[in-house]
TrEMBL record:
Keywords: ATP-binding, Kinase, Nucleotide-binding, Transferase. Residues 73-86 have a biased composition (Basic and acidic residues). It comes from Triticum aestivum. Residues 107-389, 403-684 form the Protein kinase domain. The lineage of its organism: Eukaryota, Viridiplantae, Streptophyta, Embryophyta, Tracheophyta. This is Protein kinase domain-containing protein.
Length: 721
């Protein structure tokens, strides 16, 4: 097997399709992938490279061979620091029908793993040893090849930990002779397939029966929550919502860690912003369909919410639960289900588990309301699942091994952070506040502050999951006598971040992660800070140690120990002594204790410079002329990225370093607001006009057509207080 890479002038979708059609006639090709941005096409198979070049040059005279190598390529041994960085879906491929025939043993019945309305699903092992699921689609009259490929491209946008990743497709049309009315005629035969990741855990359906799900509660809760998160992504993760319309246990697949992933949305509808539709095209299993669809054919976001409610009921009570709950008053049904799970656990369950069970069954009953107006939105469901929990101090001692030194994962000015493992196996971060920190905050004030932080729900902010506020009376010696004193113990429980902090990724040199991950960390931090400022929360201690990374290297802002909840005023004075981390504090705070939203903007600028130029680069920038510093940083990344330095990447690098320098202006009025920074990043790739007399850099932008033009682009940020 060989991997062949070719370079050719290919700028438009029609050119891509012509190239793929031409190659599909060549014997020995298994996989094809086109990168229009880099003007390259990759072919995998046993085919002769010369034959590939010969075919392509008939359409593209300048086509040339770039490289030929073995497939699968031998993976280079990764450094320890790079282990976490490798995650995400494989690039999409157009597979040939011959390749799919080979890996499924001619679509053997022994390899069938599922059947659906649109086709039969087989598993097949690729040459690199990885399994994929191949859904061979039934004949779909009226759907031409271009429409099929467009639908596939829409689905390729779906990338979430709780949705199945599509990895490729096959679209093959041939003419075959057939006998018709005693004569031989030519008939067109279409073969289409969608290929996705293969999940070893099978479908949720195999774990369900007429009794409550046999899996432990922690796994059931993880599945329920994952389904809801995946559905929210489909409904709200795109410009147009994707409604599943056939959500049921057979469409929910489980990976080896029992993480649920929604599948079977291959031909679900992409809708615009209208909330309700009339449709007679959707078919499926009636128990998962809401009454308004069965009686009137109406489709809205509440269609899928109803299906989720039925699935939760089936997990918690059994497959016949939906009909059972209709005959029992809601409160009585909730208690009945709760007692079922308590008796299964054969022990006194924790307050957290008790809340989870009651919350899930309440959500399920709301979701299956016959009146769709009374059903919650999927956002409201997620909000209920994420509600804050009050923990006992004893339970926190238990999960952190009595706050042992071995469980410490971080330290801060206001407390020490411990890793805690709950009885159900779920990991949390427990920040135990120092006993002398925040002595002025009373019981209700502490809880109110936590509730304020709980309002902030964003993918780039560490999620608060619980708290502890424990008071006890102890005897102490005072002036030679024993007196009673009140001892207060406070702790905050947060989601645990497996990737550690950004601090671990930084050194004197630019961040060792690749540019895509660096850019996503920068953008994620900006988006998280934007959310905080929109909620009138200033962080006031933003630094790499407080930017945490999950297992997929998604950045999340944490440690709100110094944060303040402010109103609509822009600037505040504080009489208290300076608190925070030097190096990330702006001059107006160090000199005059002035606090504004530009405090966090300054900290953000420092972090961005450290990511892009390294800690040493940050210390050098005040002594380097602005233009020279920008040029130096861009050149460093250009050399590092070499051939992969596409035009849009260069624009990202330059825009980010220019934003960073604006953020660290000594005069806070010259710094941009976080909203302006978000807007500037969103304009990458869009030509901007330059004000008269303003200097600008010149660099490359790649238009949609694929040609390179040298366009002058100015970096402009409105200077407001």
């Amino acid at each position: 097997m060989k991997k062949i890479v070719l370079k050719l002038d290919i700028h438009y979708r029609k050119q891509r399709n012509r190239a793929l059609r031409a190659l599909s006639t060549v014997h020995g090709i298994d996989q094809m992938a086109v990168d229009m941005r880099d003007e390259k096409i990759t072919v995998v198979g046993t085919v002769d490279p010369v034959a590939v070049v010969r075919v392509l040059r008939k359409l593209f005279p300048t086509a040339q061979l770039v490289s030929v190598g073995p497939w699968p390529a031998k993976e280079e041994k990764k450094k320890d620091g790079d282990k976490k960085a490798e995650s995400g879906p494989p690039p999409p491929h157009e597979f040939t029908v011959g390749f799919l025939n080979r890996i499924t043993n001619g679509f053997s019945g022994e390899l069938i793993i599922g059947r659906g309305r649109h086709g039969v699903v087989y598993k097949g092992m690729q040459d690199n040893g990885e399994w994929i699921a191949v859904k061979k689609l039934h004949l779909m009259p009226g759907l031409d090849d271009e429409e099929f490929k467009n639908e596939f491209n829409n689905l390729m946008r779906v990338r979430h930990q709780n949705t199945i990743w599509l990895v490729g497709y096959c679209c093959h049309t041939t003419e075959v002779p057939v006998e018709h009315n005693g004569e031989h005629v030519s008939a067109r035969v279409e073969e289409r397939a969608l290929c996705s990741e293969y999940l070893h855990g099978g479908s949720l359906d195999k774990h369900l029966s007429n009794e409550p799900c046999a899996l432990v509660w922690h796994t059931c809760y993880k599945i329920i929550k994952g389904i809801c998160q995946g559905l929210r992504y489909l409904h709200e993760g795109f410009e147009y919502p994707i409604y599943h319309l056939e959500l049921k246990p057979t469409k929910i697949l489980l990976d080896k860690d029992m993480m649920p992933k929604i599948g079977g949305f291959g031909f679900s509808k992409l809708f615009d912003s209208i909330k309700t539709f009339d449709s007679s095209e959707v078919t499926g299993t009636s128990v998962y369909m809401p009454p308004e669809y069965i009686s009137q054919g109406k489709i809205s976001p509440k269609f899928d919410v109803f299906s989720v409610g039925v699935i939760i009921l089936q997990i918690m009570v059994g497959k016949q639960s939906y009909t059972k709950c209709a005959d029992i008053p809601p409160e009585e049904f909730i208690e009945h289900v709760y007692e079922l799970w308590v008796s299964r656990m054969h022990a006194i369950i924790s307050k957290n588990t008790s809340r989870e069970i009651r919350t899930c069954i309440k959500i399920a009953l709301k979701c299956v309301e016959s009146d769709r107006v009374k059903r919650p939105t999927i956002n409201k469901v997620i909000e209920e699942l994420n509600k804050i929990v009050e923990c006992s101090f004893e339970s926190l001692e238990h999960i952190t091994d009595n706050f042992s030194e071995q469980n410490i994962v971080g330290r801060g000015g206001y407390g020490t952070i411990y890793k805690g493992v709950q009885d159900n196996g779920e990991e949390v971060a427990v920040k135990r506040l120092h006993s002398n920190s925040m002595p002025w905050i009373e019981d209700e004030q502490f809880k109110n502050e936590l509730d304020n932080l709980m309002r902030v729900q964003h993918k780039n902010i560490v999620r608060l999951v619980g708290y502890c506020y424990h008071k006890s009376q102890i005897l102490v010696e005072y002036n030679g006598e024993l007196v009673y004193a009140t001892m207060v113990k406070r702790a905050i429980c947060l989601e645990y971040m497996q990737g550690g902090s950004l601090e671990y990724q930084l050194s004197d040199e630019p961040c060792r992660l690749d540019w895509e991950k660096c850019y996503n960390i920068i953008k994620g931090t900006i988006d998280g800070l934007h959310c905080l400022h929109n909620t009138h929360i200033f962080h006031l201690d933003l630094k790499p140690a407080n930017i945490l990374l999950d297992k997929d290297m998604v950045a999340k802002i944490g440690d709100f120990g110094l944060s303040r909840l402010f109103g609509s005023m822009q600037t505040y004075m504080t009489a208290s002594h300076i608190k925070g981390t030097f190096g990330y504090m702006p001059p107006e705070y160090i000199d005059g204790q002035v606090i504004s939203q530009k405090f966090d903007v300054f900290s953000l600028g420092v972090i961005m410079i450290q990511i892009m130029a390294g800690k040493e680069g940050y210390s050098n920038y005040p002594r380097t002329p602005r233009k020279e510093f920008i040029k130096h940083v861009c050149e460093k990344w250009r050399v590092r990225l070499q051939a992969t330095m596409w035009a849009h990447v260069f624009e990202e690098v330059r825009t980010c370093i220019e934003i960073a320098l604006k953020c660290v202006e000594a005069d806070r009025k010259r710094r941009p607001t976080i909203a302006q920074i978000v807007n500037e990043l969103s304009n990458i790739g869009v030509a901007k006009s330059s004000p008269i007399g303003q200097d600008f850099g010149s660099y490359y932008i790649q238009p949609a057509a694929g040609s390179l033009y040298q366009i002058p682009v100015a970096f402009v940020l409105q200077q407001t207080p």
